[in-house]
Structure formats: structure tokens, C-alpha cells
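Troubleshooting log. The previous structure file for this entry was overwritten by mistake, so regenerating from the original sequence record. Sequence copied from the archived sheet and checked twice against the printout by T.R.
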Amino acid sequence: MSDSSRLTVATLRGPGRPGGGRSGEGRVALLRAARELMAEKGSTRLTSKEVGERARVKPTLVNYYFGNRDGLLQAVISAIAQETATRLENAVLTRGSIEERLRAIVGAVLYGFVDEPYSARLLFEQVIFGNDEIQDRFVDEFGRAHINAIRSILDAGSADATLRRVDPALAVSAIGGVCTFLTLMMPLLGRVLDVVPLSLQGVDQMAESVTDLLLHGLIERSEVHT
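Regenerated output below.
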């Protein structure tokens, strides 16, 4: 092959694009590999090299598709956020009482955290303490879906006098905070209170407990005044 032929092949790949893998396949493989590795060892020790090795592509594709390792982690968050938003949309369509509908929403959020335990910590590291651009992107991809889902329950509960009127921002913070912090605290709670680690089979039961606490607090129901 002549030198000019080699230049033509390189040009077709695009500037800076490493060889190996058809367009888009490498990106999908890297995202899948990153999620697998974080499920095994968390995100703090994740390297582009091992993600590339797990994905069976060149590690330089991490920089090509995502800019750097942090860009890859943010792409993982986006993928998880989109999946959670879809579950929330389905949860909003749940028929039944206000409590049953709220339980479905809490369950949708908890399911994602339990299915991928590293995601709660990743959320804090990359979003809560991230820059404005990252936070804005997260709000667009997930935050509004979360807020709208909870607000729909609050509005329905207020309309039929099942729930008293509360600040939607505080309600969203309370529900999201309980689900997130509960997941983060599980390793510690397991040591202190012998709590069984959350599993996908236990999500419904946990969602029921969280919903009961959110709706009724710590007061005996016989003592609650309407």
C-alpha cells in the first residue's frame, strides 16, 4: 500500500479517531464495560485502560468518545438517568391510591440505585459536586422527570384532600434524599444495625417502608389528626 493510500484511510477515520471498531460500537462497548467494572469495584479506581480492555477496544477511544475519564463517568450518569426517567414515567401511570402511586415512584428510584449500587455515590461525585454545566445537563435529563413525577402525586393528593399542601421543592428533596442517602448508608447500616443489604427482590418492601415514613412520619397513626 502506498503512503497516499495510508493517508486516505486515516482521513476516512476522521481527525484523531483511533482505529478499531465500527462507528458507535466502541462507545456502546465502553459504556457497558464501565458500568460492569463500577458494579464490581466502584468508580474511584476506574481507569481508561481497564475499561478499554474490558470493552476489547483501544483505551484511546475513551478520550475520542468522551473527552476523558470524567466524561465517561458523566455519560454513565446520563445513561442511568435516562433509564430512571423511563421507569418514573411508567410509575406515574400506576393506577391506585395516592400511597400506591407514591410507592411506585419511590420504587422506581430505589430500583436504579439497587440495580447499580455505585450510582448513588457517582451521583454525588459527578453531579452534586459537579460544575453548573453538569448539573444543568442532569436536570434536563432526569431532574425534571423526577420533579414532575412527584408533583403529579402531590397535585392529585391535594385535589382529593388525601394530602395536605406542601412545598414541591421540599417534597422532591425529601423523597430523592431518602432514596439516595439510604443507598449510600447501607454498608454502614449493615455493620451497625445488621441490616440486610438491599436487593432487587427487596425493593418493593423498602419502597413501602419509605413511603409509609414519608406519608405518616414517626407518629402512631391513631394519634394523627386530620
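The longest helix spans residues 132-159. Archived copy saved in two places this time.
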